[in-house]
Specification:
Distance between the termini: 34 Å
Strand order of the largest sheet: 1-2-3
CATH superfamily of the largest domain: P-loop containing nucleotide triphosphate hydrolases
Mean pLDDT: 90
Radius of gyration: 19 Å
Order of helices and strands: HEEEEHEHHHH
CATH architecture of the largest domain: 3-Layer(aba) Sandwich
CATH class of the largest domain: Alpha Beta
Low-confidence stretches: none
Largest sheet: 3 strands, antiparallel
Number of domains: 2
């Protein structure tokens, strides 16, 4: 996400509005900060963060219950939000079970697929169409966001 934001800042000619550091991007006008942490390396570092308005978690399908028990009380600012961006993996994944199947009150779920991407190339559309014809179940999982059961994953990974 860090690299993508840097690219977009440059693409739109906004470099003068941002201070880009190794682990954060600061808006010089508003003072807002994007702070980047790797949950998978050291979740304990997150505990000391203060004043977070939005937790934007990429690859959230990999979030574990243990990690969430540390994160949830850290995002304590009044009105704060958690945004989970992910491609569903398994029906047993923590984020899928707790934020899609049985979401907390007030949760907004927005499913976005390839067919809403105005920048998708013709080449990729052909790849997607071939996947639809070749492996309908795999297509549904990869391109339509349908999670697999544990059994589906075991079968798909078998040699």
């Amino acid at each position: 996400m860090y690299t993508l934001l840097k690219i977009q800042i440059d693409r739109f000619g906004l470099r003068h509005r941002f201070r880009i550091l190794n682990n954060k991007i600061i808006n010089r006008v508003t003072g807002s900060e994007f702070v980047f942490y790797g949950l998978w390396r050291n979740i304990e570092e997150i505990k000391s963060l203060e004043g977070i308005d939005v937790l934007w978690l990429e690859e959230a399908h990999a979030l574990t219950e243990y990690q969430w028990k540390i994160l949830e009380p850290t995002i304590r600012k009044e009105g704060s939000e958690c945004w989970f961006i992910f491609n569903p993996g398994l029906v047993t994944d923590f984020v899928w079970r707790n934020f899609v199947v049985d979401p907390p009150e007030g949760t907004l779920i927005r499913k976005i697929n390839y067919d809403e991407n105005p920048f998708l190339s013709d080449t990729m559309l052909k790849v997607i169409d071939a996947a639809r014809r070749r492996d309908p179940d795999g297509f549904k999982h990869v391109y339509e966001g349908v999670p697999e059961s544990d059994d589906d994953a075991a079968i798909r990974l078998a040699p």
